[in-house]
C-alpha cells in the first residue's frame, strides 16, 4: 500500500493566528449578522426571511402558511443558523409594538407588549407579508439587484433588496456586533418622504432644514418624546445620543388612565413598579391600581388616588421619576454604508446615501425595461415582415433545408428574429395582424422614447424618484403617533412631600432592641421588654424626620423611622439594621429636620455642633462624626447658637458657662476645647441654656437652682477656661438642665 504523503501545512505564531481568526469572525458578525445596510435597512437574516416568504408566494393578498415552513426554507436555503434565532427575527418583524411598519403579517400568538417573547412556537403560527413589504420586493425581478450564490452555491439570493423607501429609518433596528452596536429608532414614513424630497431638490439641504419636516423619531407605542429640540439635533448631527420618552395619560373622573407607554416598556413591569412602592408604603397617595387593558385598549392602566385632594400632576411627576413611565433610549446610527464599511452616520448622510442607492436602483430598472422594450420591438419587426410575406415564409419553412439561414438571407433578419418566426405556432398565424403589430410598435416606441428621455436627464430621474416616494408615502404612511413636547426630566417628590407626617416615638433598650410607637404620649418605661432587658433611651419625632443613632465610638447612623418595627412587639436588634464596630453600642437617639443643629462633645473636653444632615450615614456602616478619647456626651440641640450658652460641669465639681457662638460648626471632627481640664478631670455633664434661663444642677438626691444673673457673675467665662467650683455639696454633678430664671436655692430630690 502506497503511504500517503503529508500535505504542506502553514505554520503561524499563535498570536498572529488568533488575531486573524478573531478579526475574521468580527467582520463576519459585523457585516453578515448584526448590522443593517443603509440600502434596504435589513440585516441578512431579515432580508433572507423576506425573500424566502416572497419565493413561497406569501404576498399580502395570499393565504398565510405555517411559520415553520418559512423558517425551514430560510435556514435550509439561505441562512444556515439556528431556527429559534431565525423565528425570533421573524416574530419581531410581525410585532406592531416593535416595528413602526411591520413587514410580516402574523396570525396566532405573536407575543404581547407585556412579554414580547411569549409568542407561540412556529408550528402553531402562520404568516404572510404585509402590504408595506412590497416596497422592498416589488422591483426585485426588474434587474435592480445583484444576485450572489447562497451558502452552498446551489441557489442565488439577492445581495440587497430594492427598497423604494428609506427602511433603515422607517423601522430602525438594534444589534450588537463585536466591538460595536447599533440602535436606530423608527421614524414616521410621511416625514421621511418629505425629507427625501428636500434632498432630491437640493442635495445641500442642511440638517436644520431637514428637521423642519423630520423633527424626531416616531415610536410605534405612541408615547410622548420629551427631549429638547437641541438634544434631538445633536443626535442627528453626531449619530449618537439619547431620546427621552414619557407615557401619555389622561384624567377620567378623579382617576389617572395611562394610555400609551414608552417604547419597549412592558405594562406589567409598570404595574409591578407601582405596586412595589405601594407595598413598601412609599406611595400613600395611591389607593388602588387596575389593569383594564383589552383588545380595543391595548394599554389602559388605571391609577386611583387616595382622595380628590391629591395633586394629580405632582403624583404623575413622581411616578415618571421612579418608574419606567419615563425612559431614555440610546440612539446609535451605526450601519453598513454603500462602501461596505460600518460607520456611525449623520441624518443628512444617511438620507443622501440612501437616495444615491435609490436613484441608481431606478436607473437600473429603467435600463432593464428599455432593454426589454428594444428586444420586443426587434421581435415585432420580424413578425411584421412575416405578416407581410406570410406565403413566402411558409414556403421557406416547408421546402428549404435550412429555413433559419434562408429566412435570415431572404429578409435580412437577425438570428433572434429568425428564431422568433420559426417559434411561431401555426394557430398563432391567424392572430398576426398588421394593425396589432403596428399598434404595439407605436406603444413600445413611445415608451422607449420616454425611457431614453428619463435616462438622459439626471433631473428628470430624480423627479421620478421623488414622485414614487411621494406615492408610496401616501399609500403606506400615516400620521405621527408620538407628539414632541419638550419637558424637563421628572424629579421624584421628597419623602416629606409624598408621605404623611405622623408623630412617633422611637425607643431603644439597653440590649439594643429598637422599635417605634405612634404618638408622643408613650409610657416608654412601661413597654414590654425581654427578660433581663430594660429601657435605655427614646426620642420623640415625626415619620418624616431624620433618625440619627450615635454610638459609643463617635459614629452616626441613619434609619428610616417608617421601617422600624411597631412598639406592640419587642422590636428588633439594632445590629440587624446597622454594622456596629466591635465593642460599640448605641448610646443616643436624635430625631429632627435635616437643618436642625446638635452639639456633639466628649468627656475629654472637646466638641462642636453640626447639622443633622451632616450626620447622616449613607449605609449600614454609618459615618465617623466625633473624634474622641473619652466617652461621648448625650447630644444637645441648639436652636439659636448666636443667643444660647453652653454649661459644662466636670468631675471635680467645676462649672463653666460660655456663649454657644464660640463653638465651631463642623460636619465631623474633634471640635474645639470646651473647658480646661487638669489631670484626670473630665466632663460629666453639659447642657444648652437659652437666653435668660437659669441652671438646675442635680447632685445625688439634691438639686441646686442658679439664677441667670448668678450664672453670669459666678460661672460665665471664655470657652476653654477652667470655670469656677460649684458650692460645697454639689460638686458631684449627676445632671444639669435649663430652668426658667429664679432665685438661687436648693431642694431635696
Task: Quickly count the domains.
Answer: 5
Structural class: alpha+beta
Helix content: 25-40%
Global shape: elongated
- CATH level-1 class of the largest domain: Mainly Alpha
| Mean pLDDT across every amino acid position | 90
Give the low-confidence spans: none
Radius of gyration over all CA atoms, rounded: 43 Å
**Main sheet summary:** 4 strands, antiparallel
Order of strands side by side in the largest beta sheet? 10-11-13-12
Task: Indicate the topology.
Layout: H1 14-34, H2 44-55, E1 65-66, H3 67-78, H4 83-92, E2 104-107, E3 126-129, H5 134-137, E4 147-149, E5 156-158, H6 167-170, E6 173-176, E7 181-184, H7 189-201, H8 207-210, E8 224-225, H9 229-238, E9 240-246, E10 248-252, E11 255-260, H10 267-279, E12 286-291, E13 301-305, H11 312-322, E14 326-332, E15 334-336, E16 342-344, H12 347-388, H13 390-399, H14 403-411, H15 415-422, H16 426-429, H17 434-456, H18 458-476, H19 495-498, E17 503-509, E18 513-518, E19 535-542, E20 546-551, E21 555-559, E22 572-573, E23 586-592, E24 597-601, E25 606-611, E26 623-624, E27 636-638, E28 645-650, E29 654-659, E30 672-673, E31 683-689, E32 693-699, E33 702-706, H20 708-714, E34 724-725, E35 735-740, E36 745-748
Antiparallel strand pairs: 1-3, 2-3, 4-5, 6-7, 8-9, 9-14, 10-11, 11-13, 12-13, 15-16, 17-18, 17-19, 18-22, 20-21, 20-23, 21-26, 24-25, 24-27, 25-30, 28-29, 28-31, 29-34, 32-33, 32-35, 33-36
Helix pairs in contact: 2-3, 3-4, 7-12, 7-18, 12-15, 12-17, 13-14, 14-15, 17-18
Amino acid at each position: 500500500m502506497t503511504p500517503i504523503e503529508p500535505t504542506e501545512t502553514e505554520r503561524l505564531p499563535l498570536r498572529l493566528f488568533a488575531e486573524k481568526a478573531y478579526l475574521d469572525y468580527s467582520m463576519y458578525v459585523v457585516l453578515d449578522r448584526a448590522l443593517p445596510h443603509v440600502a434596504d435597512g435589513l440585516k441578512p437574516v431579515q432580508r433572507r426571511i423576506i425573500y424566502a416568504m416572497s419565493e413561497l408566494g406569501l404576498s399580502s393578498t395570499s393565504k398565510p402558511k405555517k411559520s415553520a415552513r418559512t423558517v425551514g426554507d430560510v435556514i435550509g436555503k439561505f441562512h444556515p443558523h439556528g431556527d429559534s434565532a431565525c423565528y425570533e427575527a421573524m416574530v419581531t418583524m410581525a410585532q406592531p409594538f416593535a416595528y413602526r411598519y411591520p413587514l410580516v403579517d402574523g396570525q396566532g400568538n405573536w407575543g404581547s407588549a407585556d412579554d414580547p417573547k411569549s409568542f407561540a412556537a412556529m408550528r402553531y403560527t402562520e404568516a404572510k407579508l404585509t402590504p408595506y413589504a412590497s416596497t422592498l420586493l416589488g422591483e426585485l425581478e426588474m434587474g435592480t439587484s445583484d444576485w450572489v450564490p447562497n451558502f452552498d452555491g446551489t441557489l442565488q439570493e439577492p445581495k440587497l433588496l430594492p427598497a423604494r423607501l428609506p427602511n433603515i429609518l422607517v423601522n430602525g433596528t438594534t444589534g450588537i456586533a463585536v466591538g460595536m452596536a447599533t440602535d436606530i429608532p423608527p421614524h414616521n414614513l410621511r416625514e421621511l418622504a418629505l425629507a427625501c424630497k428636500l434632498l432630491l431638490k437640493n442635495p445641500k439641504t442642511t440638517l436644520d432644514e431637514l428637521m423642519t419636516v423630520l423633527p424626531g423619531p416616531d415610536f410605534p407605542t405612541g408615547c410622548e418624546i420629551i427631549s429638547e429640540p437641541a438634544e434631538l439635533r445633536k443626535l442627528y448631527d453626531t449619530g449618537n445620543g439619547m431620546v427621552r420618552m414619557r407615557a401619555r395619560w389622561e384624567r377620567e373622573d378623579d382617576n389617572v388612565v395611562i394610555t400609551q407607554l414608552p417604547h419597549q416598556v412592558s405594562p406589567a413591569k409598570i404595574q409591578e413598579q407601582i405596586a412595589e412602592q405601594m407595598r413598601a408604603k412609599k406611595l400613600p397617595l395611591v389607593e388602588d391600581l387596575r389593569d383594564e387593558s383589552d383588545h380595543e385598549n391595548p394599554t389602559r392602566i388605571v391609577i386611583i388616588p387616595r382622595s380628590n385632594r391629591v395633586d394629580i400632576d405632582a403624583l404623575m411627576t413622581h411616578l415618571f421619576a421612579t418608574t419606567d413611565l419615563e425612559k431614555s433610549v440610546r440612539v446609535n446610527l451605526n450601519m453598513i454604508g454603500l462602501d461596505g464599511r460600518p460607520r456611525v452616520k449623520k441624518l443628512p448622510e444617511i438620507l443622501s446615501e440612501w437616495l444615491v442607492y435609490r436613484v441608481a436602483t431606478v436607473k437600473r430598472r429603467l435600463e432593464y425595461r428599455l432593454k426589454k422594450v428594444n428586444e420586443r420591438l426587434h421581435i415585432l419587426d420580424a413578425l411584421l415582415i412575416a405578416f407581410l410575406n406570410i406565403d413566402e415564409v411558409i414556403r421557406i419553412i416547408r421546402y428549404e433545408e435550412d429555413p433559419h439561414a434562408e429566412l435570415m438571407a431572404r429578409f435580412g433578419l437577425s438570428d433572434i428574429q429568425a428564431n422568433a418566426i420559426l417559434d411561431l405556432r401555426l394557430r398563432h398565424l391567424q392572430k398576426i395582424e398588421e394593425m396589432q403589430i403596428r399598434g404595439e410598435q407605436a406603444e413600445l416606441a413611445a415608451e422607449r422614447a420616454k425611457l431614453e428621455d428619463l435616462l438622459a436627464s439626471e433631473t428628470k430621474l430624480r423627479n421620478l424618484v421623488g414622485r414614487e416616494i411621494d406615492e408610496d408615502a401616501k399609500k403606506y404612511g400615516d400620521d405621527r403617533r408620538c407628539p414632541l413636547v419638550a419637558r424637563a426630566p421628572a424629579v421624584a417628590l421628597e419623602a416629606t412631600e409624598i408621605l404623611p407626617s405622623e408623630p412617633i416615638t422611637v425607643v431603644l433598650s439597653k440590649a439594643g432592641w429598637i422599635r417605634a410607637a405612634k404618638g408622643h404620649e408613650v409610657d416608654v418605661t412601661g413597654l414590654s421588654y425581654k427578660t433581663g432587658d430594660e429601657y435605655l433611651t427614646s426620642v420623640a419625632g415625626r415619620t418624616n424626620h431624620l433618625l440619627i443613632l450615635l454610638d459609643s465610638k463617635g459614629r452616626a447612623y441613619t434609619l428610616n423611622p417608617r421601617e422600624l418595627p411597631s412598639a406592640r412587639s419587642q422590636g428588633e436588634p439594632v445590629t440587624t439594621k446597622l454594622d456596629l464596630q466591635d465593642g460599640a453600642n448605641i448610646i443616643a437617639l436624635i430625631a429632627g429636620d435635616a437643618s436642625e443643629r446638635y452639639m456633639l462633645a466628649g468627656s475629654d473636653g472637646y466638641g462642636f455642633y453640626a447639622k443633622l444632615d451632616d450626620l447622616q450615614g449613607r449605609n449600614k456602616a454609618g459615618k465617623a462624626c466625633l473624634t474622641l478619647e473619652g466617652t461621648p456626651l448625650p447630644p444637645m440641640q441648639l436652636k439659636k447658637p448666636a443667643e444660647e450658652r453652653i454649661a459644662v460641669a466636670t468631675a471635680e465639681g467645676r462649672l463653666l458657662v460660655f456663649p454657644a457662638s464660640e463653638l465651631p460648626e463642623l460636619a465631623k471632627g474633634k471640635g474645639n476645647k470646651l473647658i480646661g481640664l487638669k489631670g484626670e478631670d473630665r466632663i460629666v455633664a453639659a447642657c444648652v441654656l437659652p437666653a435668660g434661663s437659669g441652671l438646675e444642677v442635680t447632685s445625688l438626691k439634691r438639686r441646686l437652682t442658679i439664677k441667670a444673673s448668678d450664672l453670669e457673675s459666678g460661672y460665665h467665662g471664655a470657652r476653654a477656661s477652667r470655670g469656677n467650683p460649684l458650692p460645697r455639696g454639689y460638686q458631684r454633678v449627676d445632671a444639669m438642665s435649663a430652668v426658667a430664671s429664679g432665685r438661687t436655692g436648693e431642694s431635696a430630690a
